[in-house]
Amino acid sequence: MHLTAGSILSIILVRIGIFNFITSVITSVQTRQQELAVLQSIRITRKLFKTIFIGKGLWYTAITVIITLPIGSVITYGIVMGIAYQMWFFTYIL
Prior knowledge:
The chain has a domain of about 35 residues. The protein has 2 helices and no strands. The relative contact order is 0.04.
């Protein structure tokens, strides 16, 4: 019974996540189209807009990696050590 309930809950959460991602992508595309139209009205070319768009994407990626890598490592280490502490046959070697 727990397996069935957990599976159904997991499927529902996965579907919500997928729909949220799709909605976010559609909204982003529509926003970018409006932004491109405004920038073209002030004579910014598609090539320059593409360069700006790629630069922003790379910048967001770099910031995300710089922030999440140390925080994620600390959280993961804490979880692994918590599990290793409870299992006598498990040894974590750094």
